Amino acid sequence: MTRRRGRPPSAGHPVSEHRETWLSGNPRGPRWHPDAISVVLCYPSSYSLGMSNLGFQAVLGLLRAEPDVVCERAFREPGSSAAGRSLETGTPLSEFDVIAFSVSFEDDFLNLVAVLDAAGVPLAASDRSDDDPLVVMGGVCAYLNAEPVAPFMDAVLVGEGQVLVAPFIEKVRGSRSLPRAERVRSLASLEGAYVPSLYAVERDVDGGIAGFRADADAPSLVRAATGPSRMAASVVLSDGAFFSDMLLLETSRGCARGCRFCAAGSVLTPRVWRPAKEVLDAMEAAGSRTSRVGLVTAALLDHPEATEILQGALRLGVELNISSLRADAVTAEIAKLLSACGVRTVTVAPETGTEDLRRAIGKPMSDATLLSAARTMADGDLRTLKLYFMIGLPGERDEDIEAIPELARAVRSCFVEGRTGARVSVSVSAFVPKPRTPFQWLPMADESYIRRRMSYLRKAFVGRPRMEFSCAGAREARREGVLTRGGRELSEAIRLAAVERVPWKAALKRSGVDADAILGRERADSEVFPWEVTEVGPPRERLLSSLVVARRLLSERA
Asked: Is the pTM of this model over 0.85?
């Protein structure tokens, strides 16, 4: 590979207008020299969202810490004159050795392809020459299902960045003089590296997936790269991030609650905790640069040292931002500590309006527990309580939907009454059966059903004082469902939508994809899924066992 070899950037001017403060990694920025390996880390959405994504930040720090690696960033800002160029120097993405995408949301599959198109990089991996960059992908979507964009990828890196990044760079360094085909093939020997071109999808007589045939140089099944690793933390603060100038700290990874709809609890295993001392030391170290800290975790109050973390944050004068809380873990002490640390908004996710449906989906929260938590948080002077619900869940009935506004009204009475400025915010989205979960065998509700349920709830919340209501669109939910559950057959529809701006439904039709065939049917227990070319999370036998329990609980409701 003789084209780039650390060549200085051709544009020669930065395109970033944001104020940034580096906490770790390489604050001096890129160092182009003849032997450098150049990597552009791309978040296929806005700078604001990318710089608030802890996974993106963690990989940025790892790449910047690698010797002889030039790592710049790129984002997708629609309409920007810098499309297809790096943030730091405005270098065309096509001039880097590696374009590495960090993808957290399935909708960004379209943005990913749009970035490659703007950069002038051939979209199909099979069309790239020796002079084109290696195109790889990691992130949450690599864990779940990368098959819709597999034809665009030279490799998909499945697993933890701290385990994958250094070996990947070493492999790139050792193969850079080889022809492109051999460079790509060599990646298959890395733990967690899935090279789509080395795998063929085999079909049965009905057109379903019978299995995957691996090339002789590739493992029959790609297992996620896991191993001991540190909790992630921000490497750079930015005034342009969605969480402006906020230090993001991962306090735990994974979840042991066992919600049957949740992919995070399945793929992020085993459950690990960051000791309270490490969390507080990181807060203190960043104290001269920011007092704003976001604690990133599936369930903060499941942390065995949650109280110590909150007490330490209060002692350090830190302003906290937190994700959702478990209602059954909220105590008076916790509520007061959160308020004292500047937390004004908390989120609790009942998921549905009735207790028996909650039990069936693996989230056994009673109404009494939720109402008690609302009163406790009100006593702690928290100001906004957000409630998150889903519709279209398996076994859902009219009474489950009708119970949502009634439950929200009861929560409002507990949380708002007698307090000026307090409010309840209700958010509703459609259930999407995610890969790697017990519900991956189940169908998704059709668009008309979702619209009808959303319309009912929207009307039910009209005119309710000190209560807000929002819901996600049915069309967008179905698109997410297709993208998260489909296979390589989606690549042409993605290209049409991303490059030719064809509306999504028309793109599916033109490419011969039937969305209902992907979403609208319950799968046989033995059916092979597109994402099972890689092995992530619990074995399917354990997922099926959980689904059997859910089916029994749902049948008992009938």
From this structure: yes
